[in-house]
Amino acid sequence: MSEINNPNEIFINDLCKKVPIIENIFRKGEIEKTLYDFENELLLLNNEKNNENEIEIKIKNWRENFKLSNIKINEIIKLFKDENYKNNSEIQQEIKKKLKSIIEFIMKNIDESIINYLIPQLIKSILLYIGFIRIVLFSTTNATTTTTTTLTDANKEIEIKDLHETIKESINFISNNIKSLQSKEQYYYLNGIDLILKSDISIYPLDYQLIIEKPFLSKSQCEGCIEDLETEYYPEVLLPISNNSIIFRVDGQSIRQSPISEHALGRIYTFKLEPITNCVGQFLSNQLSLKVKLANASTSFKNKPISIRVFSILHYDEKEMNNNNNNNNNNYNYEIQLGNNFGTVKIISDVEHEFNIINDHSYNLIKSLNIKKPFRCGYSDTTIGFSKDLGTDPILNIRHKLQKPTSTLTTDISGRILFIEIFVKQPTKID
Fold first, then answer.
1. 127 exposed, middle or buried (CB, 10 Å; 0-12, 13-18, 19+)?
2. What predicted TM-score, i.e. pTM, was given to this entire model?
3. Which PANTHER family does the UniProt record give (predicted)?
4. Which one of 1.20.190, 2.30.29, 1.10.150, 3.30.70 gives the CATH number of domain 7-198?
């Protein structure tokens, strides 16, 4: 088998490996059995709770509502088994509509007492919907046959926007209904949820390959004598070389805080794994730093502008935020610097796409310090590319201008950076 180089095909291949329902339908062609098995899961046939009468009644009510709904799995099977569906836009839109109706039905009819039984089915429904769009509508290869997508450029934009809204709504629904993660069982219910965010084409364009650095914990310098601080210590990552444009993600836990500020704070903030991003993250101090090693920088990254994006949870005072907005003096943004101490500083806004991330642990932390909501979470916009000569080991510095006039080192919990992403765009080929 030849090596897969197309970023979308790389993503699809990974999605099929991790999500059996997608692999079985789109790669193995096991449509009927796979979808009928999924219907049994949706009907919660394996979740009778004879010793919990209230839950048992709720499950039976759910089952009856599902049977009375307009969701007919046999109709979806019939559409999938039509040999023309891979090239027929009308059939494709009908399949898409029916798959989306499953997501909408679960979110509309879910009951708090049985939510843990249905979240896995909701995640699987979302991933099936995503798999259909990525494989059938946006792929040039469908299973073993090669086809040309039926979408026009205008329709592609509509599909991308619709997918983004569905993903955003689904993620926000799940995070709003999963109030806390106190047990391993609850993490199990969320298996595969991190694939949803990665599937958003508006955030991860089809021509970019997402590469994720293996997480490691940056060294803390909270304790010891100030004279012994390793101010020249920087955690290091090697920016991958690829024939594709790439988005390189680094978990916030791998980024260094300012040693002096961390030592003065005298406290280590630790976070639980956040399931939607599958990242732990780092406390947002006044400066976070990371050494980005560029292998063969003079050749491998020549004429390839490098830009930065941040995904964060920000805690702020609503009154102060409104005052700043009214004065057209919005101080809620990042200063991004890549290079030596005299390198160019780029200013980017803090949140462009808002999501409700499962933020239980972090919220409890700030709640204990009498710092309350609101918080906002999502992607910053992307810096304009750093296109000058960066050398071989440029330092990435991230500073945030979220500062409260009355804050102190022990109470100013500004937020948490879940991860940063480095964009490397391939030069446009000239024929």
1. buried
2. 0.89
3. ENDOTOXIN_N DOMAIN-CONTAINING PROTEIN, PESTICIDAL CRYSTAL PROTEIN N-TERMINAL DOMAIN-CONTAINING PROTEIN
4. 1.20.190
